[in-house]
Design a protein that fits this description.
This protein is mainly beta and about 1150 residues long. The protein contains eight helices and 83 strands. Strands 31, 33, 36, 37, 39, 40, 41, 42 and 43 form a nine-stranded mixed beta sheet that branches. Strands 3, 18, 21, 22, 24, 25, 26 and 29 form an eight-stranded antiparallel beta sheet that branches. Strands 74, 77, 78, 80, 81, 82 and 83 form a seven-stranded antiparallel beta sheet that branches. The two termini are about 85 Å apart.
Length: about 1150
């Protein structure tokens, strides 16, 4: 199908139409004249002229994308009627435009909503015109005359001081900048520049220049390219505005001819010789000329060749493009980059030649080589440009593909046709020489057919025209009205719901039939007053009664807006229906609905072709079941409690056909074990936090005879509504006085004598006889006070640990606080220092914690071993019959010269189970003071006070396959705590081997990096041992009580010596092993192996210690040699409490409880051949 027809009396081709329109614009014709001429030439609808005397004359539908003076009149009317198009700028009062855009659509929608025009779609059609005429007939609103737009009194045009440099103007170059002019508007108003006349000057033929263009400050071409006339001039007539008091810099550029062989060497320039600014005075010294350019035909600049349809192009016109389509690729073109130079694609501009408006296409993007870029739309919604800067660079021989991608939002029966109008709309710049390029012409001739691809005329790229499908209407079941129970004899009972989805355009429904499927024996005449409602509650059709054929046909006219819309079928079921009868609404869309598009007026057949059925509704009369809920359970309660929950009443309307209203509830209060009903008072029912009976309706029991049931009648001042199909629980609460004795009991429930409920149907008012499950309620047993219990919690540490001196908030013990029968606030707790080796001077203070919140502190006075906490224990409350954890932490003492704390002390703190009167809680119900029962202290474990401590980590070895020669047998890491450095005096390895007799030497290496490449000490290895030293004692003697086992290899270190290590069994002056605070050392045990054969194996492990060495003497700090002689001596280390410890310093410990070092040994490494 062609776009325009050629021939006399027929439609004109695009270029002819454009030429005529340009000529009219140059004559200053108004917008209406231009629009009408264009419509006549292209077969469109002429735009009506505005009506005089304030009333608009609307003779056509107005929607997004339409232009004309009737649109401007509509905007003026909307602004005067209080539905402003805009508050400022285009469309605002005094600045109305002839374009119907999104702002006008929104204003029309607001006007429609205010004047009862449905749908409020922002489409000004027949309904809106009728409402407008009616309003104007009753008293027209005269649109205010447009406010005067201030026009600047003057425009100054000057030469830009930074003129384009004199250079070459090669053939085929585009956008060659010749001159720059600065346009400055006076401060008293904006200035519109109507035209800029330029002149070719100098010794250059006009034939060298293919066309002249004007570029704005962003490099965007304004208007069409022009050719030089016989006077060497061209008028650039695209208007542009210079805001008051501002300046704009415009560039005069030329597209050079493709063959300059005859003009090469010529020198010429371009000059601005005249400016038309309407009524504004133009001040300037003309001509304003740029530098001269030299014509060149020999420079081979880059090129875009072989234009062809891109692979992203749809390849054919879409005749039924659905509204709602996302990411639709409308057109695509592709070029290959020439061999002269790489290129940069700076800008792509697409032209929308179809009839769709800007409201029909959204989220328009330009795709370049797979990357999406946002596209800016021109004011008329025709051009879409993507400015890429220098982000797209393509090398020689590469390809450039550009496509246009969009979402289809509307525009039924309109077209989307994206073209590239001119070659210069693809702005490409050579990277080597810096000239803009003109892409190669296409090979197709413009025959006025659609989708011709690249042509040799305009449009440069002719894309396919895609037709947006007319409106559609789809029907499906909606679950807005779920399957459930429905009552009889209730108007506007929901009988089902359907979802109607309109696409492409609003859909006008003129006939709508609903059929009801009924239980056997029931008749359609038993359903009256059926209507169709929106989900917002507005009636669109009905009411009508159902006929004997069980169907009802609505002939009301109503509109389904674009999108998914829910409609509810409502009616009244007569009393002829029986309980358990079912009602099911159904629609056969293509046969039961008559509809047409509100925009196109075309008939629409609803889908699907099969029947759509709503959820089944079951007839049920009002019904209620009443019972006592399973919670609360029977329990103890301390007397004196207010608002105690005695029971929950369960109201079950799951089998009811309508909502229920409860106004009165009777219950029985049963006292026992010597109690009387009058021991309770102020009984109320609660729906959540809302009291249902208050003031004079509060119930006070009055039966004074012990063990005698009392009637509680709850008259609701706030009625209880139970929605049908639901279950609601209501609390029953009373205050308990201080009169009942311990072990007396109370129950509140539904008894055989007191269980009546006054309930009616909310809609029908029908009295309901409830079904009651008798239950006297849970037994609540009175206690005079609660019980406080304190025990050791399972989360408390179970093994001794090292504690760093002067560290705060060191975890000692976790206690479990239990409150029984009432909530208890803990005010004080007695704590004791439970280690015989520690003293109060080892602890600065204790802190008490509720999770991460500090709630108290405790201090040991003098040398005492008992402390009483002072807690802000309004913050530590344990709820009734629950448990809560209280964490005890310590700020440890400072070690050092003249410091009171003692290194090596085991600091242990526990709850003092004997000082029961010191520990105090307060019962929050009884108000009484509570003490725990006397018992044993808790048995928590402590922390051993040190300056620092090591942490071990086993590492993998390079290989576990035995080989002759020296090989790695074990690797591990030792890290000192950040508090201080530490020293090591001894390490012991177990070596179990079938070949130990042939293992000659073991060496221990130390590194400062995990790669085992940087020596940690001056000498590496730090120690070596001969294989025959496996029975050597601590310092090289061949015998002694501390002699090692026959499968052990031991290394000794003197922390204060730094001599070269030896393999001599008698040498004790080996290098010191100190590890800095927070630092790590990486140790590697190597052995020299010989005569390894298949089947040989070695197992190697680092040994630990299972108890503290000589605990009796540890209070006096073992010397290293003493520790070495003890039974637990496999690892000996020092926390360097005051300085680096020598072997004679009383500051040595063994490997017990060192983190990462087990009490037996680290995991062994196994080696086999």
């Amino acid at each position: 199908m062609s776009k325009f027809y050629n021939g006399y009396g027929g439609l004109k081709a695009k270029d002819q139409v454009n030429s005529i329109i340009m000529l009219l614009q140059s004559f200053g014709a108004d917008a209406t004249t231009i629009a009408n001429v264009q419509a006549s030439l292209t077969g469109g609808t002429p735009v009506p002229a505005p009506s005089p005397a304030g009333k608009c004359s609307f003779t056509r539908d107005l929607t997004t994308g339409v232009t004309g003076d009737d649109v401007k009149c509509l905007q003026q009317y909307l602004n005067s009627a209080g539905n402003k198009v805009a508050s400022s700028g285009a469309g605002s009062p005094g600045s109305e435009t002839t374009y119907f855009g999104s702002l006008t659509k929104a204003a029309v929608g607001a006007w429609q909503a205010a004047n009862g025009v449905s749908p409020t779609a922002g489409y000004f059609g027949a309904k809106s015109r009728a409402k407008y005429d009616a309003l104007m007939a009753s008293g027209p609103v005269t649109p205010p005359p447009p406010g005067p737009t201030p026009v600047g009194s003057g425009l100054t045009v000057t030469a830009d001081p930074n003129q384009p440099a004199a250079t070459l103007a090669p053939q085929s170059a585009a956008r060659v900048a010749f001159a720059k002019a600065v346009f400055t508007a006076s401060a008293d108003g904006d200035v519109t520049v109507n035209s800029v006349t330029v002149e070719r000057q100098g010794l250059m033929d006009d034939s060298a220049i293919s066309s002249v263009i004007i570029l704005d400050e962003n490099g965007v071409q304004l208007g069409l390219q022009k050719t030089l006339n016989a006077s060497h001039r061209a008028a650039l007539t695209e208007k542009f505005v210079v805001k008051a008091g501002t300046s704009r810099t415009m560039t005069i550029a030329a597209n050079m001819d493709s063959d300059l062989s005859q003009e090469t060497g010529q020198v010429g320039r371009m000059a601005v010789v005249a400016v038309d600014a309407g009524t504004s005075a133009v001040n300037g010294s003309f001509p304003i000329a740029g530098n001269s350019m030299t014509v060149n035909s020999t420079l081979s600049i880059g090129s875009l060749a072989s234009p062809t349809r891109g692979p992203l192009d749809p390849g054919a016109a879409r005749s039924s493009l659905e509204v709602g389509t996302k990411n639709f690729l409308s057109s695509s073109g592709k070029w290959s980059v020439g061999s002269a130079e790489p290129v940069m694609l700076e800008q792509v501009r697409w032209y929308q030649a179809g009839s769709a408006g800007t409201g029909d296409v959204k989220n328009v993007r330009v795709v370049v080589n797979g990357t999406e870029y946002p596209a800016e739309a021109s004011s008329d919604g025709r051009y879409y440009v993507a400015r890429l800067g220098q982000s797209v660079e393509v090398d020689k021989g590469g390809n450039i593909e550009t496509a246009i991608k969009l979402d289809v939002e509307g525009g039924s029966d309109r077209t989307i046709d994206f073209d590239i109008q001119r070659r210069t709309d693809v702005v490409v710049k050579g990277k080597t020489y810096g000239y803009y390029l003109t892409p190669a012409n296409g090979t197709s001739a413009n025959t006025s057919t659609q989708g011709e691809g690249f042509t040799s005329t305009e449009p440069y790229y002719d894309g396919y025209a895609h037709t947006i499908a007319k409106g559609t209407l789809r029907v499906e079941k909606s679950n807005t009205i779920a399957a459930g129970n429905v009552p009889v004899d209730v108007s506007n009972t929901s009988l089902g719901s359907f979802m109607l989805e309109a696409k492409g355009e609003p859909v006008q429904v003129t006939s709508f039939k609903v059929t009801f499927g009924l239980s056997a024996g029931e008749d359609g005449t038993q359903i009256d007053n059926v209507s169709v409602f929106t989900d917002a509650g507005a009636v669109v059709a009905g009411p009508k009664d159902v006929g004997s054929d069980e169907s009802v046909t609505f002939t009301d006219t109503w509109t389904v807006p674009v999108g998914a819309n829910t409609y509810v079928i409502k009616g009244k079921l007569t009393t002829d229906f029986e309980d358990a009868d079912t009602v099911q609404a159904q629609i056969d869309p293509d046969g039961d609905i008559t509809a047409k598009g509100e925009v196109t007026g075309l008939t629409i057949s609803a889908t699907p072709t099969s029947s759509t059925t709503a959820n089944t509704m079951t007839v049920k009369r009002a019904a209620l079941r009443v019972a006592i809920a399973p919670t609360p359970a029977s329990q103890n309660v301390v007397r004196g409690v207010n608002g105690f929950l005695f029971a929950k009443v369960q109201y079950d309307a799951s089998d009811s056909g309508e909502d229920l209203r409860i106004t009165t509830q009777k219950m029985g209060l049963t006292p026992a074990s010597g109690s009387t009903a009058t021991d309770l008072n102020t009984c109320q029912m609660f729906d959540g936090a809302t009291a249902l009976n208050s003031g004079g309706n509060v119930v006070t029991p009055d039966e004074a005879t012990a063990n005698t049931e009392d009637l509680l009648t709850f008259n609701m001042d706030t009625e209880i509504i139970i929605p049908k199909g639901t279950v609601k629980e209501v609390d029953v609460k009373c205050n308990i006085s201080n009169l009942p004795a311990a072990s007396e009991t109370f129950r509140v429930g539904l008894t055989s004598t007191n269980s009546d409920t006054t309930v009616v149907g909310k809609s029908t008012g029908v009295t309901v006889t409830e079904s009651v499950t008798l239950n006297t309620g849970p037994t609540m047993t009175i206690k005079t006070g609660g019980t406080l219990t304190i025990t050791l919690d399972a989360s408390s540490p179970t093994a001794e640990r090292y504690g760093i001196a002067n560290k705060t908030d060191v975890l000692l013990v976790v206690l479990k606080i239990k409150a029984t029968d009432e909530a208890i606030r803990l005010d004080r707790i007695a704590l004791t220092l439970a280690s015989s080796t520690a003293s109060s001077s080892d602890i600065k203070k204790l802190t008490l914690w509720d999770g991460a919140t500090k709630v108290g502190e405790a201090v040991f006075q003098g040398t005492g071993t008992r402390a009483t906490s002072t807690l802000s224990l309004a913050d530590f409350t344990v709820a009734k019959d629950t448990e809560k954890l209280l964490t005890i932490k310590a700020d440890l003492g400072l070690l050092g010269v003249n410091e009171a704390a003692t290194r090596g002390h085991l600091v242990t703190v526990n709850y003092d189970g004997e000082a029961v009167t010191t520990t105090k809680g307060v019962g929050l119900s009884s108000g009484g003071e509570l003490n725990p029962t006397a018992g044993a202290d808790t048995a928590g474990v402590g922390v051993r006070l040190v300056q620092t401590y090591p942490t071990f980590e086993r590492l993998s070895v390079p290989s576990n396959t035995l080989a002759n020669g020296e090989m790695t047998l074990y690797r591990f890491k030792v890290t000192a705590d950040a508090a201080d450095d530490l020293g090591i005096a001894k390490m012991t390895f177990r070596v179990s081997s079938t070949t130990v007799a042939t293992t000659t030497i073991f060496k221990l290496f130390a590194y400062s990096d995990s790669g085992f490449s940087t020596n940690a000490y001056a000498q590496n290895p730090v120690h070596s041992r001969n294989v025959d030293e496996v029975s050597e004692d601590v310092w090289g003697n061949v015998s002694g009580s501390g002699a090692m086992g026959t499968d052990e290899i031991v290394f000794y270190f003197n922390p204060v010596s730094n001599t070269t290590p030896t393999v001599s069994s008698a040498s004790t002056t080996v290098e010191a092993l100190n590890i800095p605070a927070g630092g790590s050392r990486y140790f590697e045990l190597k052995g020299s192996l010989a005569s390894v054969t298949i089947g040989d194996s070695i197992a190697v492990a680092l040994l630990g210690d299972s108890t503290f060495a000589n605990n009796t003497n540890l209070v006096n700090r073992e010397q290293a040699d003493v520790v070495g002689y003890s039974a637990q001596n496999d690892f000996v280390w020092s926390p360097n409490t005051t300085s680096t410890s020598a072997t004679t310093t009383n500051d040595w410990l063994n490997g017990y409880q060192v983190p990462g070092l087990p009490t037996t040994e680290m995991s062994q490494q196994n080696f086999t051949k």
